[in-house]
Write a structure and sequence with these properties.
The complex is a heterodimer of chains A (about 220) and B (about 240). Chain A is mostly helical and about 220 residues long. Chain A is built from 10 helices and no strands. Chain B has 6 helices and no strands. The chains are: A mainly alpha (about 220), B mainly alpha (about 240).
Chain lengths: ~220, ~240
């Protein structure tokens, strides 16, 4: 337990210090949201309609970009081998690493989302709904991405392979995140149903992600 | 002869050679019967005319696209749980075949959709989930191609296949949800009432023929993969000796 807490603190410290790149994801998110109106035109009604989708896709891409750092840096400097041979169960260790990653890269996205919602002409209620769905949904993105990050480390291949493997698996989360936000804004479905499924998907990925990632690491690095 | 005996690649090569000798003529005969029934015996649909015959390619390909992932998941379990030496060969050999059948399904469906629905593509739930499955097949192929050590790639591919097997039903379900939210009631469905026996029988024959074709292709691809790995080992030995 102590080792896991130490790991959590260490990962969070590393992420916020020089070279950690925790806030680059937020900057990327901001840039994506800025680019979309330039592409589709400055029509405020249209932007309000597709705003939740833009925010969700931006958050999805930003969290994907950060995945490369989740395990690769530890693999490069050898600390991943220490974690593998350590006494703490590998499943819990990677889960803690994913948690630290979520706090330092995805939580800032959730906090930034309301401000970006103003750019997209979203109503206050809609901004709240999008931020809430992002808060509940982004852990699933991180924990599914954990599988991809573990595979990339085990194969010693990063780059484009990781998003190609991970993106199709995140489709359900995108669908329910956006439909819950839209349900809160225009209906006709009540907010609760898609939101509950989104929460269920997150809980499922919290279970599947660490086990699959630990299996990938064990098989790949032995 | 059990699965354990087949773990020896030489025995598998001998066994699969005899298997293929039986499978190839049976598959060819079934295709001959199936295509004859499909093109000359089955009547035109009263609404769709002759285009209904696309179904005899489209439906078996769709079935195989899904069955192939099931076969791959079993092979993935074989790699990770039982450590069967041929399991990752089976997994690798099945991936491009599954991708090809899924592509045939999408392509035939698209060709069918143009005259019937007036468009090559709609973001209908069923089409979308098949497209996503196709993308996942391509991702797996990309993974196989990214790594030169086959056993390392095999275990990674096995994990991804199993994660995909858990996710495919969820993706199917979520896409159903997504579609019904956006365009209710306008979803165009096949068939309507139950299929008439004169069309159902050729369809079943074609499904059987396609399934045997899959088995034939899969066994041949596994043989090729075993031989390819032998060549690779020989080359590595040669390089080390030199």
């Amino acid at each position: 337990m102590e080792a896991l807490a130490a790991l959590l603190l260490r990962d969070m410290r590393l992420a916020v210090r020089v070279g950690g790149g925790a806030l680059v994801g937020v900057l990327f998110f901001l840039i994506v949201v800025t680019i979309v109106p330039l592409g589709v035109g400055p029509d405020l009604a249209l932007l309000a309609r597709i705003g939740p989708a833009i925010l969700w896709i931006g958050a999805l891409l930003a969290s994907l970009l950060a995945l490369d750092r989740l395990l690769a840096a530890d693999h490069d400097d050898g600390s991943l081998d220490l974690i593998l041979t350590g006494r703490a169960p590998l499943e819990l260790a990677v889960a803690v690493k994913a948690l630290a990653h979520w706090v330092t890269t995805s939580l800032p996205l959730v906090i930034a989302a309301p401000a970006l919602g103003l750019f997209l002409n979203l109503e206050p209620g809609a901004i709240g709904a999008v931020a809430l769905t992002l808060l509940v949904g982004t852990p699933a993105l991180t924990f599914i991405g954990l599988i991809g990050a573990a595979l990339a480390v085990a194969l010693r291949r990063g780059g484009l392979l990781l998003p190609v493997l991970v993106l199709p698996l995140t489709i359900p989360i995108l669908i329910f995140g956006v439909s819950a936000s839209n349900a809160a804004i225009v209906g006709p479905v009540p907010f609760g149903a898609p939101f509950a499924i989104l929460a269920a998907l997150t809980l499922m990925s919290l279970v599947i992600g660490p086990f699959a990632a630990a299996a990938a690491l064990r098989h790949g690095l032995e | 002869m059990g699965l354990i005996d087949l773990a020896n690649p030489s025995r598998f090569l001998a066994f699969s050679h005899r298997l293929l000798q039986a499978l190839v003529p049976v598959t060819a005969a079934l295709f001959a019967v199936g295509l004859y029934l499909a093109f000359f015996v089955a009547p035109d649909d009263y609404q769709q005319g002759a285009t209904v015959r696309i179904m005899f390619i489209h439906v078996p390909a769709a079935w195989l696209g899904m069955m192939c992932w099931t076969v791959m998941s079993i092979a993935a379990l074989g790699t990770l749980v039982w450590r069967h030496p041929l399991a990752d060969v089976a997994l690798k050999a099945a991936t491009p075949i599954g991708a090809a059948f899924t592509f045939i399904c999408l392509f035939a469906g698209s060709m069918w959709g143009r005259p019937m629905w007036g468009t090559y593509w709609v973001w209908d739930a069923r089409l979308t989930s098949v497209l996503i499955m196709f993308l996942m097949y391509l991702g797996l192929i990309a993974l196989w191609r990214a790594v030169d050590d086959p056993s390392r790639a095999g275990r990674a591919a096995a994990i991804l296949t199993l994660v995909g097997a858990v996710n495919l039903p969820i993706i199917k379900f979520s896409v159903d949800w997504w579609n019904t939210l956006h365009q209710p009631a306008s979803v165009i469905r096949l068939g309507g009432p139950t299929i008439h026996p004169t069309i159902l029988l050729p369809l079943l024959v074609m499904v059987l023929a396609f399934t045997l074709l899959f088995v034939t292709l899969h066994v041949s691809a596994m043989r090729n993969e075993i031989l390819r790995r032998r060549v690779r080992t020989l080359r590595l030995m040669q390089a080390e000796a030199a």
